Each structure stands twice: as structure tokens, then as C-alpha cells.
Amino acid sequence: MDSMQFDPSLYLAEADLPGDAVPPDLLILNQPIASFEIFARLWKHSIYRICADGGANRLYDMFKGPLEVRRVAFLPDAIHGDLDSLREDVRSYYTSHGVVATQDHDQYSTDFGKAMGKISTRQSPSPRREILVLGTLAGRVDQGLGLLHEMIREETEHPHFRLWLFSESSVSFILRSTNNLIQGTSSSRMFTPNVGLLPIYGPAIISTTGLEWDVKVWDTQMGYQVSTSNHVVAEEIQVRTNAPILFTIERAELPEEGIAK
């Protein structure tokens, strides 16, 4: 794998995905869903939706008050995990509407890993898989770092997988290729200029264009030097790296989110 293109704006757009885009899967974790509007757009663009155990609780609980009448329109394809967090009222509601809840007792994998295993066995129209992960990096530090660990593990075990983490305020993904082109961050107006390139998976040597503080053949390592709080200044960002790094960009507030507050 020598080069890869990324456009995180595709999954946040109101418009349908382009005809040549790979329809993604959506994985909902047992973590707070910060924005209904973001959730709804990710749901719209995905073709398979799975809740990792208590993620079904989060989905169910989001539809309260004025949104309750819309709950039936957002039924996941599956609920999977050890199911120790799944509430009985939530299980009863979804199974009564035809959603299959399956249990995996493996104590050596997390519910994230179990759900990814379910996704990996599903037949896909494309050899490449795009997986949208709805979760958070807030809360417990160990769980946040564990989530980033699971992302690189899944992409290492399944090189044709690409995971996108949609957290409460950012979109994050792993740059594994030598040459990476990130598009759509400026023209879409869905992101702020704030970005970070983090070598959380080990030391890397990177070169960039399109950022306020570009670097060339730059050693980056946790505990040494990292590119955080950088800014996008061009429509296309190019990143060359000799090892996997995490790219993260801050999401701008959608107009509908401001109205909802």
C-alpha cells in the first residue's frame, strides 16, 4: 500500500455519497452520542449498522422527548457483544422489531472487537471496507487509548479495512500508507482548521504540505516532538510517513446542531 486518499467530509454531508464511494458500515459504541445530527448523517450514508452491546442503550436513549416517535426509523441490523451492558427494556424493544441480538462470551476481546468480528464476516460488495465508529475519547483515559489501540489492531489484521472515529468534536483516522492525500476539509466547511498528527503507534518520520507549520523529513515520537494544534491552510493536505500515525481534525458545528441547543 503506497498511497491513500481520505475525504472525511463525505460522511458528514447532507448529499448522498458519490456513485464511486464505498458505502460504509456503522459501529455504535457504548458511549454518549453527542450530536443527533452527526449520528443521523452517518446512519444515512451507511448500509449496515451494528451496536456493540450497550451501544444499543445509547441508541435507544437518544430518542427521548420529541425524538421518541423517530426511534422506530433507526433500527440497527444487529446488536452484538457479551451483552452484559444491554438493558432488558432495550433488548425487548429491538428484538420485538426484528433486530437480532447475539452474544459472544469471549473474555479476551472487547465488545468493540466482537462487533468488528461480526462486521468482518458480513459479505460486502467491495473488497475495501469503510467503517464509521461512533464513539468518544472523553471520559476514562484508559478506554480512550484502548479505542485507538483497537483501531490500529483491526486495520493491521484486516488491511482492507479503514476505520473512521467520529468522536464528540473530531474525526480521526490512521495514515498507514507512505503517501496520504486528505481532501474536503476546507471547502466542505464541516471542519475547523485545527488538526493534529500524532505518532501514538510508535516513532515516525513525516513530511507535510498544506499545513500552517509544514515539516520535512521530521522525526516525531511521543515524549520527543509531535505536531498538535496545527492548522489547515490548503484544500489538500499531503502527508508522507514511514509508519502509522493518527490524523485528527476538529469538526465544525453543523447549523442544525446550533439550532438544537
TrEMBL record:
* Pfam families the UniProt entry points to: TPK_B1_binding, TPK_catalytic
Respond yes or no to whether keyword Transcription regulation is given for this record: no
What reactions does this protein catalyze?
A: thiamine + ATP = thiamine diphosphate + AMP + H(+)
What molecular function terms (GO) are annotated for this protein? ATP binding; kinase activity; thiamine binding; thiamine diphosphokinase activity
Task: Tell me the Gene Ontology biological-process terms attached to this UniProt entry.
Answer: thiamine diphosphate biosynthetic process; thiamine metabolic process
Keyword line: ATP-binding, Kinase, Nucleotide-binding, Transferase
Q: Tell me the domain of life.
A: Eukaryota
Family according to the record: Belongs to the thiamine pyrophosphokinase family.
Q: What is this protein called?
A: Thiamine pyrophosphokinase
**UniProt source species:** Clohesyomyces aquaticus
Q: What is the lineage of its organism?
A: Eukaryota, Fungi, Dikarya, Ascomycota, Pezizomycotina
